[in-house]
Design brief:
Strand content: 25-35%
Helix content: 25-40%
Number of helices: 6
Distance between the termini: 24 Å
Radius of gyration: 16 Å
Strand order of the largest sheet: 3-2-1-4-5-9-8
Number of strands: 9
Length: 212
């Protein structure tokens, strides 16, 4: 599948990869709720479970899942992000590709993590995206989806002085839960926390855990 938003997303992250990785180097370490949710996801998947971290960026969350006992690989559109992920996590597998067309057999995975990586997918592509997540999960496989809460996209322009721009979608948890249900998932939990301005956040953060 080729689409303008995929090209724009790849170009944006290829350009800002090193700055992004430096800026968010302690992202998980600074967020205890997120660490707890990732640990719960890993426990539900089970020791040694096969998991894909989709939109893995520099691979920090991929590495955390590996440390929690999962057999995990990362996937990202951006070659520059993947270069950082491989450099910083030489023992893990990272592949380039699109979440919308996964080169993964049906029912092959025990878990899918989509950690703030659906936020560049337009609304009309979300049913395809969630359908692809459902396809690659075995029955009772686990999905953890993280995103910012809101009603409109926030556009970032010239980050760290780079001449690129990209829309970051904000969405309502109840609507995302409905789309997951339509794709065949059963919602297990919905967690929303308020924005932490000390961490530079401007909107609440949502985390949906669902079973395939």
């Amino acid at each position: 599948m080729t689409a303008d938003f995929l090209t724009a997303t790849r170009a944006f992250y290829d350009t800002v990869a090193e700055d992004y990785a430096d800026r968010f180097r302690t992202d998980i370490a600074d967020r205890p709720l997120e660490r707890a949710l990732l640990a719960a996801f890993a426990e539900l998947v089970g020791e040694g479970g096969e998991v894909a971290d989709l939109g893995c960026g520099p691979g920090r969350v991929t590495a955390r899942l590996a440390g929690l006992g999962l057999s995990v690989f990362g996937l990202d559109l951006s070659a520059s992000m993947l270069a950082i992920a491989r450099r910083e996590n030489p023992g893990l597998r990272f592949v380039q590709g699109s979440m919308l067309e996964l080169e993964v057999a049906a029912g092959a995975l025990d878990g899918v993590l989509c950690w703030y990586s659906s936020i560049h997918t337009p609304d009309d592509h979300l049913p395809v995206l969630f359908g692809e997540f459902r396809r690659v999960l075995r029955p009772e496989g686990q999905l953890l989806l993280a995103f910012q809460v809101g009603d409109a996209a926030r556009r970032f322009e010239d980050p760290w002085g780079h001449p690129v721009a990209l829309d970051f979608e904000r969405r309502r948890p109840e609507e995302m839960a409905r789309l997951l249900t339509d794709a065949g998932f059963t919602l297990r939990s919905s967690t929303v926390r308020e924005a932490d301005t000390a961490l530079g956040e401007s909107s609440p953060q949502a985390f949906l855990l669902a079973t395939g």
